[in-house]
Amino acid sequence: MIMNRKHVLLASIYTAFAMLGLASTGCSSSTSAGSGVAIARPELENSDSITACLPAGVTLDSKTTDKEGDSETVKDTLARLKATVKGGKLYDLNKREIHFYTPTTKGLEILREPEYRKLSKKYSLVLLGS
Q1: What is the DSSP letter of 93?
Q2: The whole model's pTM is what?
Q3: Which residues of 27-47 are buried (b: 16+ CB within 10 A; e: fewer)?
Q4: Is the N or C terminus of the chain more exposed, i.e. has fewer CB atoms within 10 Å?
Q5: What is the largest distance, in Å, between two alpha-carbon atoms of the chain?
Q6: Tens digit of pLDDT for each residue in 80-118?
Q7: Cα separation, 75 vs 51, whole angstroms
């Protein structure tokens, strides 16, 4: 995996917390291939109940993307959002319902999609894709 700015920033923040003795022990860490840098990744809690709420065709191993084109799994994305289940629906840490969205464009063009703009006002969107 190529280290991008987001990963370098996260690694720097984690290192700073570790030096201060504030690093969370509830996170697993992984090492980027060839980089030697450990990146803290939050673990997904209640994965069984979360899996039951995923839309048809979406698994925890499905790929997601962000507006910058970075890719990760649904599991990693939901862990980062600190997803919880309430009433059979997924919610993020800010109590916004999580919806899965498959964009028809790539990169920053996603922001111009009318459907994306409409949904992003109401929901925390997880962009599906490679």
Answers
A1: T
A2: 0.65
A3: eeeeeeeeeebebbbeebeee
A4: C
A5: 46
A6: 999 999 999 999 999 999 999 988 777 778 888 899 899
A7: 9
